[in-house]
Automatic annotation (TrEMBL):
Organism of origin: Yoonia algicola
Enzyme class: oxidoreductase
Domain of life assignment: Bacteria
Lineage: Bacteria, Pseudomonadati, Pseudomonadota, Alphaproteobacteria, Rhodobacterales
SMART domains (alphabetical): PKS_KR (SM00822)
Alphabetized PANTHER family for the sequence: 3-OXOACYL-[ACYL-CARRIER-PROTEIN] REDUCTASE (PTHR42760:SF133), SHORT-CHAIN DEHYDROGENASES/REDUCTASES FAMILY MEMBER (PTHR42760)
Record-given protein name: SDR family oxidoreductase
């Protein structure tokens, strides 16, 4: 990291999907600031936990659960607080960006996508607000897909538009409590999943031409903005969506 956020030293941080992709980079980034990190994921992450423990001399707390199981998700957050103390930061990062032809989407497809990409976000926020004392920062990961109106992923695009609306509503409702709620909208970040499933050389080359900055984005590129929103450096920012996409979309 090029910057240190001193108030994150010892902070209690909870990340959904913190064991792979962007989430793993975020776990690493918060640990590098001296934060106490807990994260959830569906797959076993014990190897990653050992790696982080060796690197930072402080291992993250991993709690295996499916975030669509709301009682399990909220129970994991209680467990994290029992170990690390009152929650300071929630990062809703876990997502599922499956591709669908809109005419083929079933009700079950729609519900499963929104269970991951919208419902779990809200109930993680709700639980976080009850665990933050006296203040806290919630960071919801959205996506520029809803700004671009991308075809082939209507449930995901719809959910990410909703995440920004939810972020604004909760920022307004919980501002008097001192809880800040912001969103980050990444561009195309080339995680292992993206490289394996969708990032053909042709697709990557075409997308690169949409960017102002002619470099492919990596998970590590999302860390600095997230730490900034988590830190009191951004103390008077709430209800905002920050785009980190190498210049694909315009805001303002």
């Amino acid at each position: 990291m090029n910057a240190s956020f001193h108030d994150l030293q010892g902070a209690s941080v909870f990340i959904t999907g913190g064991g792979n992709g962007i989430g793993a980079a975020l776990t690493d980034g918060f640990l590098s600031q001296g934060a106490k990190v807990a994260f959830v994921g569906r797959s076993d992450a014990s190897g990653f936990v050992r790696e982080m423990g060796d690197k930072h001399e402080q291992a993250p707390l991993f709690i295996q659960c499916d975030i669509t199981d709301i009682p399990a998700l909220q129970g994991a957050m209680d467990q994290a607080v029992a170990v690390h103390g009152p929650l300071n930061v929630l990062v809703n990062n876990a997502a599922n960006d499956m591709r669908y032809d809109a005419m083929d989407i079933t009700e079950a497809d729609w519900d499963s996508q929104h269970a991951v990409n919208a419902k779990a976000y809200f109930f993680a926020c709700q639980k976080a607000a009850s665990l933050m004392a006296p203040k806290g920062s919630i960071i919801n990961y959205s996506s520029i897909t809803y700004m671009m109106g991308l075809a082939g992923m209507a449930p995901y695009v719809t959910a990410n538009a909703g995440i920004t609306g939810m972020t604004r509503a909760l920022a307004r409702e919980w501002g008097p409590k001192g809880i800040r709620v912001n969103a980050i909208a990444p561009g195309w970040v080339f995680t292992e999943k993206q490289e394996t499933m969708w990032a053909t050389p042709e697709a990557k080359a075409a997308f690169l031409q949409k960017q102002c900055l002619q470099e492919f984005m990596k998970p590590q590129d999302m860390v600095g903005g997230t730490l900034f929103l988590a830190s009191s450096t951004s103390a008077m920012m709430t209800g905002q969506t920050i785009v980190i996409d190498a210049g694909v979309v315009g805001t303002g």
